[in-house]
């Protein structure tokens, strides 16, 4: 992927090289979950209790040890900031074309563990988006694991695909799609709730393909093999591929992200069509 020389985003915070060295007895993740529960069910009392819990959570994790980033990590950080800027620019354009107002998310690079408005998370979570703080979280070690454990081709455009997918979840938050889906899931069986989750994830794959279409037209970024890298990553993180790899059998009713075939299809649909309005994964899957 061609990326050097383009604008870099100011909405990226690099926490790699930072590790907890202070009080961790209670565990920030537990406090984070309490904050979420208070906000969800606490009513007016949440306004008083949440700040106290947040302050306590910060006190538990303020002491850190740091190390300088390697040259490779610095380059990786520059790449991520460029990808973030590319996503910001493309989605600003798409929103303007559709008379919508765009607000950029933040992105935090971390190593090992991280605290979020959605609770504590570790590298094992993989890259994810937290709607509570409208932030994308990425531990870059995920991409090596994707290559070595799940057979993806790797490469810089695999990173671009994953980031664009997580950025897609931010778009769903801005459009209210995520909120509507979560509301619908409240009265559904686990099987039906999972189907809604699959539709949400496949739409994020469509948005990743749509971003690729727009960014290629804008910056001529693609190099030979880039789309194959994205499709290889999409194939590797399909529910059926992961279940077969991890447990030796596939249980379709438990799918939450879609099959490898579905994930590749929706990425390609976004990339080929370049049409924001062709990403309705909900009506086409039901």
Automatic annotation (TrEMBL):
Annotated segments matching region Disordered: 1-20
Domain of life: Bacteria
Membrane topology: Single-pass membrane protein
GO biological process: proteolysis
Pfam families noted in UniProt: Zn_peptidase (PF04228)
Entry's transmembrane regions: 21-42
The entry's keywords: Hydrolase, Membrane, Metalloprotease, Protease, Transmembrane, Transmembrane helix
Alphabetized InterPro entries for the sequence: Uncharacterised_pept_Zn_put
Protein's cellular compartments: Membrane
Primary site of residence: membrane
Record carries keyword Transmembrane helix: yes
A GO cellular component entry from the record: membrane
Residue spans of biased composition, Basic and acidic residues class: 7-17
This protein's name: Metalloprotease
């Amino acid at each position: 992927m061609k990326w050097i020389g383009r604008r870099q985003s100011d909405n990226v915070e690099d926490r790699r090289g930072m590790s907890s060295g202070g009080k961790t007895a209670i565990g920030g993740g537990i406090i984070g979950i309490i904050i979420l529960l208070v906000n969800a069910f606490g009513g007016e009392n949440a306004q008083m209790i949440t700040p106290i819990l947040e302050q306590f959570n910060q006190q538990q994790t303020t002491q850190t040890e740091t190390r300088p980033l390697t040259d490779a990590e610095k380059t990786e950080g520059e790449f991520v900031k460029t990808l973030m800027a590319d996503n910001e620019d493309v989605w600003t354009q798409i929103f303007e074309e559709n008379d919508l107002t765009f607000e950029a998310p933040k992105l935090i690079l971390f190593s090992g563990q991280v605290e979020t408005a959605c609770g504590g998370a570790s590298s094992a979570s993989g890259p994810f988006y937290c709607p509570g703080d409208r932030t994308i979280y990425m531990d870059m070690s995920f991409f090596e694991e994707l290559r070595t454990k799940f057979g993806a081709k790797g490469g810089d455009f695999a990173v671009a695909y994953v980031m664009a997918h997580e950025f897609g979840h931010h778009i769903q938050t801005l459009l209210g799609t995520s909120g509507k889906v979560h509301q619908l899931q409240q009265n559904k069986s686990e099987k039906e709730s999972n189907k809604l989750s699959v539709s949400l994830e496949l739409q994020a794959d469509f948005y990743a393909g749509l971003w690729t279409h727009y960014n290629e037209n804008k910056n001529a970024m693609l190099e030979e093999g880039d789309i194959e890298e994205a499709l290889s990553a999409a194939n590797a993180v399909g529910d059926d591929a992961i279940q077969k790899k991890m447990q030796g059998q596939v249980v379709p009713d438990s799918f939450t992200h879609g099959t490898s075939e579905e994930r590749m299809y929706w990425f390609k649909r976004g990339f080929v069509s370049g049409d924001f309005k062709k990403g309705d994964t909900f009506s086409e899957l039901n």
